[in-house]
Sequence to fold (78 residues):
Amino acid sequence: MECFICSEEAERLPAGGDWAALNCPDCGRYRVTGTLVAIMRAGNEKLDREPTLQWLARRREFDDFPLIGEFDAFVVRK
Ligand SMILES: [Zn+2]
Fold:
């Protein structure tokens, strides 16, 4: 499926919860809550690349599969 950060093709992983789980060659492994996916679909939005990758890098210091929620997200128009 399309990566929420870079829009390139990313591998969709089994979710096991109310989130989408992706493995992107560029952005790495991350999850997005179902609520945030719905918000971005409704507004034709994606995650802003630079701040999101910085946020993920900080999270990965203690969580190798970060979950991005609507309150953490830096969302921009597609
Ligand atoms: Zn990506």
